[in-house]
Amino acid sequence: RSISLDYTHSFIEDYELENIKEYINIAHNMLHNEKGPGSEYTGWVNYPKEFDIDEYERVKLASEKIRKNSEVFIVIGIGGSYLGARACIEALNHNFYNMLTSEKRNGPEIYFVGNNVSSSYILELLELIDGKDISINTISKSGTTTEPAIAFRIFKEYIEEKYGKEEAKNRIYITTDSKKGALKELASKEGYETFTVPDDIGGRYSILTSVGLLPIAVSGLNIDEIMNGAKDGMEEYGVLDLDKNYSYQYAAIRNVLYRKGKEIEMLTSYEPSLFYLQEWWKQLFGESEGKDLKGIYPSSASFTTDLHSLGQLIQDGRRNIFETVINIEEPKVDMILKEDKENLDGLNFLSGKTIDFVNKKAFEGTLMAHTSGGVPNIILNIEKMNEYNFGKLIYFFEKSCAISGYLLGVNPFNQPGVEEYKKNMFRLLGKPGY
Ligand code: PA5
């Protein structure tokens, strides 16, 4: 299997997993029979096989048009309305995608805005893209979130001034609820091409819908392969057998560790391109589980960089952390270290070895160190980071998150805490009706 889980370093005995099997079965049935809390938001479970093919084709057509007529593509959204697309684009494309020449990049530069309210971020982005042909995609399920709404107002005006109102319609794409919200109304009035966030899929579970797929396709990635991976993930992680289902094993192990006082999970990786995948994962698990005074605190670290900072705390600090390591078995590209005649740096002992070989030794050495320090490690082995495995990995995490939430006794599909801050912000800003 192209994704596998190794929990031999998690300090968990088989009988502990055996003891939790029955609860996994209950959680599985709650999810699949739509009997658990938040069941109205479980549309993502069968989505890889049941998605709207007409909309999917429109996503492909729009992405081709954007790739042809735009040098820059601006994605406006926050939380679940941007993290998935960014995670995928950064994990699978060139590490320096936006900085490549247009021939090498073979697609527009892609920037994300509306995920903060920093005036300098917005203004400096406008400065950066000045003089280039652009298209924008505003994504908001509710259609009312302040951060993307402000950014959209600014970029809509910019694009209308640059091209005129008629041509702007060819360059503005909206992804939102099928019926409600200010953004839906605006899109209908202005005649923009619109994509839908399905009613039964919440923001953080929406990466495989148009929310994630349009920006991903604009970057030139193969969305068919992503959906194939997700579809196979749906099969593989739908099996009600803890011994065979890695996604359920991950949920079970997290739950056992949490009960032993491991309240912080650190998702680590040795590939900096996975930074936004880690951010997406943090949102998925943090927003799904952190409620009713419960929840594992999801954090992340980028190794080996953070081994020189957080590594100390992991090794020797309070014993309340466990790590989940994403191990990419085969890197995208690799190079062999050459022999140096003078060997002034004393590195000739590595001549003939690849850089990834060194990276893997860093991983092995860290695993030995952290487990000897009493930190449980779960290892998620991924053969190669490609579109297929990315789609499968997304489904792996979504499924384990839902099961994990039900094991914890919370509704993994609402976010009352996030809603509260949004409402307070509306009130403090003087929005009518708040
Ligand atoms: O998971 C969620 O529902 C949230 O994090 C949302 O994705 C985020 O708040 C953005 O909301 P919206 O898409 O409605 O603008």
From TrEMBL:
Protein's cellular compartments: Cytoplasm
Catalytic residue list: E287, K422
Transmembrane portions of the chain: none
Coiled coil: none
Pathway field: Carbohydrate degradation; glycolysis; D-glyceraldehyde 3-phosphate and glycerone phosphate from D-glucose: step 2/4; Carbohydrate biosynthesis; gluconeogenesis
Assigned EC number: 5.3.1.9
Catalytic activity entry: alpha-D-glucose 6-phosphate = beta-D-fructose 6-phosphate
Matching Gene3D superfamilies: Glucose-6-phosphate isomerase like protein, domain 1
Matches recorded under PROSITE patterns: P_GLUCOSE_ISOMERASE_1 (PS00765), P_GLUCOSE_ISOMERASE_2 (PS00174), P_GLUCOSE_ISOMERASE_3 (PS51463)
One CC-aspect GO term: cytosol
Entries under HAMAP family matching the protein: G6P_isomerase
General function of this protein: Catalyzes the reversible isomerization of glucose-6-phosphate to fructose-6-phosphate.
Annotated PANTHER family: GLUCOSE-6-PHOSPHATE ISOMERASE
Family stated for the protein in its record: Belongs to the GPI family.
Protein name: Glucose-6-phosphate isomerase
Organism: Sporanaerobacter acetigenes DSM 13106
Encoding gene per record: pgi
